[in-house]
Amino acid sequence: MNKTDLVDELALRLGSKRQAELAVETVTDLIIRWVADGKDVRVHGFGVFERANRSARRGRNPRTNADVPIPPVVVPRFRPSDTFRHYVAEPESLPRGRPAARRKPSGAMTESA
């Protein structure tokens, strides 16, 4: 799925392609800006977008076999939530009729088996 596919799928749920496009662009813009500013973006049931520091290290040029210094760099990182990992490992457990990452309302009682 690419951005166009995401917008099209969201438009089916929202009823407007323009609203879907605006939603996707706004969310991605906010995530990029917040992470670039050093802030974590945590989405319950989905994961965390954050900045990560990669230390300087030594690499090797495969053609010449020479050591190559690789400088330290700051990169974006995504860490999926346990819920997301569970659904990827067991897709048959995805809930039917409700969003997979929906948070229970505060004070809601859980169903007992």
UniProtKB/TrEMBL annotation:
What protein does this entry describe?
A: DNA-binding protein Hu
The species is Kineosphaera limosa NBRC 100340
The record's annotation in Gene3D superfamilies points to: IHF-like DNA-binding proteins
GO BP of this protein:
chromosome condensation
Q: Which Pfam family would be a valid example here?
A: Bac_DNA_binding
Q: What InterPro entries does its record include?
A: Hist_DNA-bd, Histone-like_DNA-bd_CS, IHF-like_DNA-bd_dom_sf
Region (Disordered) location: 53-75, 88-113
Keyword terms, alphabetized: DNA condensation, DNA-binding
Q: Which domain of life is it from?
A: Bacteria
Cellular component aspect of the GO annotation: cytosol
One GO MF term: DNA binding
Q: What is the lineage of its organism?
A: Bacteria, Bacillati, Actinomycetota, Actinomycetes, Micrococcales
- Decide whether keyword Plastid is in the record: no
Q: Which family does it belong to?
A: Belongs to the bacterial histone-like protein family.
